Amino acid sequence: MHDLIPIPALGVATQTIGTITIAENAGVALASVAARRGRADICADVLTSILGAVPDVGKAVLHDPEAGFWMAAGQWMIGAPMDTHEDLADQLKAKLGDAASVTEQSGGWVVFDITGAAMPDMCEILCNAPIRRMAAGDVQRTMIHQLGCFVIRRAADDHIRILGPRASAGSLHHALITAATAVA
Amino acid sequence: MIIDHPLLGPRDSAEFTYMGDARLIERPSPDSPDAAAAFYDYAYLRDNPAGWHRELWFHEAGDRSWLVVTRNTVTHEISKVEFASDVARAKGRSK
Q: Over its length of 184 residues, how does chain A's per-residue pLDDT go in tens digits?
């Protein structure tokens, strides 16, 4: 076997601009869960056993090690640390069986963590998520730089996590840097 | 224009894509004897009302749901927003 090193979507260094820090987070494994028709109850039971609760509309359940957020009616995105849950989709499928369709999503998304006092100012020029009204655990899908992204308001008041399309990671990072520079 | 999404609440119409007349849900049966004429109507003929119109909107930058939006084409007032799946099932469709 070759001694292969996993490659993140971008591999850019963490940047601090003014008070804002933009970091690519390559440590998140993702998988989506879509309840099959008539099996929503079973799906909800399994998700409750994994996360502690089923994420409500527009909400995340910030739980360790697995966390999850609502994407659409009967659809959720589950995330967990890559180190321990690289096969997250397989783990979920084993628990959910025929109750849900599970799709590996780690290869589809790039994850950026944005922290800092000016984060809300930056978020306001990036997208139309009402960032100052969002509480910890609120999630909104929105357009950033013409890309459909998820904006997750994390536990800390100055922390948002943005999930964007991995193939456009460079464009999204450029948009983040531009916005951070504008408010710095 | 703001569309009041049944689950997500008021959302900017820029997040949505207009997908045509809501009558597109009522696809004719290909087995009926007048299928050719029915499909000609279905594919090509549209009303263009100045007033209330039922339209399909796709929440592309949101939860990807299809909605039936009742909108006044003159004033842009929106009186009703429903899930297209609910509308189709109410018409006896299974999906």
A: 688 776 789 989 999 999 999 999 999 999 999 999 889 999 999 999 999 999 999 999 998 899 999 999 999 999 999 999 999 999 999 999 999 999 999 999 999 999 999 999 999 999 989 999 999 999 999 999 999 999 999 999 999 999 999 999 999 999 999 999 999 8
**How close B63 gets to chain A, by Cα (Å)?**
5
Q: Which residues of A fall within a CB distance of 8 Å from B8?
A: 57-58
Topology of domain A29-106 in CATH is Alpha-Beta Plaits (3.30.70)
Chain A nearest-CA residue for B12? A128
Please give the full DSSP string across B54-91, using - where no structure is assigned.
Answer: EEEEE-TTTT--EEEEEEETTT--EEEEEEHHHHHHHT
Tell me if chain B has a CB within 8 Å of the CB of A143.
Answer: yes
ipTM value of the model? Answer: 0.80
Domains and CATH numbers, chain B: 2-90 (3.30.2270.10)
The Cα of B62 is separated from the nearest Cα of chain A by a number of Å equal to 5
Instruction: Tell me which CATH code domain A15-26+108-183 carries.
Output: 3.30.1360.120
Distances from the Cα of B68 to the Cα of A71, A75, A159, A182, B19, angstroms = 20, 21, 36, 39, 10
Domain ranges of chain A: 15-26+108-183, 29-106
